[in-house]
Amino acid sequence: MLDYDLSIMKPDYDGGSLVNLMRSLGDALGAPSNGYAPLRALPATRLGGAARVLLLVIDGLGQALLDQLGPRSALRELLAGTMTSVYPPTTATAVTTLMSGLAPQQHGLTGWFMHFRKLGAVTAVLPFMPRYTRATIASAGVPLPAVVDTPSFCAGVDGASTALLRAFIADSDFSQAVLAGARRQGYRDLDDFTTKLTALARGASDARYVYAYWSDFDHACHVHGPSSPQVAAHFHALDTALATLAETCARHGTALVITADHGFLDSGPAERVDLTDHPRLADCLSLPLCGEPRSTYCYVRHDQAEDFARYVETTLAEFTTLVPSARLVEDGWFGQGTPHPELHARLGDYTLQMKARYTMRDTVTGERDMDLHGMHGGVTAAEQQVPLLLAV
Asked: Given 3.40.720.10, 3.40.190.10, 3.30.70.360, 3.40.50.2000, which CATH number is that of 18-106+134-266+380-391?
């Protein structure tokens, strides 16, 4: 198994996180301020002379995985530093930061499963589906912007923008809303991705800003576990495909920035705490579990709060730390400054911050059960630390 740093790490919103990276890109591209300082390792002046800026996000490729899967890889040759993600370090929250330029404190999307008061349902936010069905909420007549008010970083850029995404998400409700203002291109596979990415790096379009997103690495880590041979093979195929990208960018005046939205841990059935095994705890809840299996938001019945806290702090003490969700906001886990007006309502009463490599899960009627072997979204350095790769 790969080595993981399981020490607790908060995001560094003072100049060392993905939010600060987006401020640096915004300063170089004329986008409005997000209220945060630029990334310490990337002053905007370093990007100022570029004809265009290409941000490539490799979903799930945290610093620990890059170091261990590819210590002599072409990607790691570009390593300029390490950043933190956001909290929770998970796709729904961190990719929203990369697409909007805002911290979770401001964009208000706090995990894969969220309770939206306007809908009265626990919803998987990126596919915009309630937990109990694969039918989208938009198909029932409620458009995503009626619930999700996250602005688009691309819309604020001084010049044209292009987004390169997997074909099946290129025109999703979420992509259309949070990448508003960008021309969206879909790709089929790694070869198609590389071909289109290379063309954009050469300036095939008039885009001043290119956002490219590779999702398959994250999928492989979830299904097989990050320590698996399948993930190692996927990484090396991706590294080979991208081996000449930096050189292409240099020849055509393109500033290349590569990072990830979060890291990963090996975590499978042996590390899983299932709510069905704890009926007394389940009886204390007013809603299904929300957030992430590694940072779980609990909505507790008001008359059961003491029983809930007592149960977690005794029976589940080996697996999780119980934190009032409001305290996480006060302590700056989600960002700085004025919070989104729905932030507190989207965090429940308590958060279960899972220890070591443990996860918490429940299921609802009609929900597809998934047997995953890699997880993220928790409080460890392995999940928080992401690389900053540069060719500028």
From this structure: 3.40.720.10
